[in-house]
């Protein structure tokens, strides 16, 4: 079973505060891109991998999904989801997303928001998602951008006082493997993969690639959160839509 | 018509010397990856975009191609190709690769080695390549890696004497557009595109993505050219194999 960081009380409290921030990267960049890449959900059976407190599941219902299943590794998160986003057409399970074969093979859409970079074996995950999707079904997910996960020392921007130039010190891009980042007062363990590894895992599982996005903020968004101008130097998120042909 | 850098005498001389270097990045990294991604060529009609002095064309014939067409923007290069790699089953044309529609619609394979980053409108190129391929045909190409083309100031590595750490100062990744790099005593003009732009251009043209590679050197290769260890921090090349379904 994967590590259960979201069951750490300090991390959980900080994370929930972050998610309530109306100018967070999730709210302004990642979520709009993910929503735009979803297929029409009316009448569909949707599975949300790493559902957290069920915000995504509730959104998929509002978009007309017939039924939504949310899975998350954290019991804290599943408890919160059942409190905040309970619905007779939604089922929540506390489980490792690598174990989804047990859920059966009847999903139209598998969605996942910023969770797959916690999984060590993405090839195996891609095969599992493929197996539980109906023919023609979609896998739409966001993850931390490979440029964000690449450095072994954690992503630390450099600002050169002399030239007034900012840059991102990239290293170890082509060294996939575990990474540890200090975030929200905790050590977060995740896995770095190159672009080609992610895409080849999907292709190897049998998926057809439909669309990619590396979202950047527009002018209004930068006004809301000026730090986001750095996204033009190094994006935070990668989103991929794939289909089981 | 695109700029004709390879017709500059200084650049041309330096470039030819580089290509004769047995431990060049082309020889050790890019070419082996490109060769490995080609479909079987026996009996096939192949088009080489940016064929240079015809080395690739000659190789495709050796792999059994029935006929090879090489196009290059540089008259210097086409003259050299006709001198070095003439063959009754090879035709060379000095032309802009964006004008390939005039060649007709009968290719099984379109290959291109390190040339498409000179093209401003890759969406249009992808559509042109799609149009001249037979159903089931392949487009296999290498380009400078988006991490290589991203910085507006040109790619300059930083070595921190104190920590003994090397990094690549990344910036402007999400700012596609023209870039100028000083290389081989000349100003080289090329175009930066993000990963998602390149892939979405192919998908938008109708291609199915088959495979991606970001080649890195093995231990023996690093022994031959120790500078190549930097490829593990920031790769130089991106290769994509796509198919017209």
TrEMBL record, chains A, B:
One GO MF term: S-adenosylmethionine-dependent methyltransferase activity
Domain Methyltransferase type as annotated: residue spans: 47-141
UniProt KW keywords: Methyltransferase, S-adenosyl-L-methionine, Transferase
GO biological process: methylation
Highest taxon above the source species: Bacteria
One Pfam entry name: Methyltransf_11
Gene3D superfamilies associated with the record: Vaccinia Virus protein VP39
Protein name: Class I SAM-dependent methyltransferase
Organism: Caproicibacterium amylolyticum
């Amino acid at each position: 079973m994967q590590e259960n960081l979201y069951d750490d009380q300090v991390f959980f409290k900080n994370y929930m505060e972050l998610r309530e921030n109306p100018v967070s990267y999730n709210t302004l960049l990642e979520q709009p891109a993910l929503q735009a890449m979803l297929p029409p959900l009316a009448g569909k059976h949707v599975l949300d991998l790493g559902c957290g407190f069920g915000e995504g599941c509730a959104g998929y219902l509002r978009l007309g999904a017939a039924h939504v299943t949310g899975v998350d590794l954290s019991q804290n998160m599943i408890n919160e989801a059942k409190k905040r986003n309970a619905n007779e057409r939604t089922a929540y399970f506390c489980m490792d997303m690598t174990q989804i074969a047990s859920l059966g093979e009847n999903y139209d859409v598998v969605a996942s928001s910023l969770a797959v970079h916690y999984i060590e074996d993405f090839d195996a995950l891609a095969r599992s998602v493929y197996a539980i999707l109906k023919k023609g079904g979609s896998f739409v997910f966001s993850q931390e951008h490979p440029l964000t996960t690449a450095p072994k020392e954690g992503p630390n921007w450099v600002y050169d006082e002399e030239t007034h130039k900012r840059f991102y010190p990239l290293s170890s891009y082509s060294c996939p493997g575990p990474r540890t980042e200090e975030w929200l007062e905790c050590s977060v363990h995740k896995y770095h993969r190159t672009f080609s590894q992610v895409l080849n895992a999907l292709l190897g599982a049998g998926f057809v690639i439909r669309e990619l996005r590396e979202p950047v903020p527009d002018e209004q968004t930068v006004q809301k959160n000026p730090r986001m101008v750095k996204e033009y130097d190094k994006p935070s998120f990668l989103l991929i839509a794939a289909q089981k042909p």
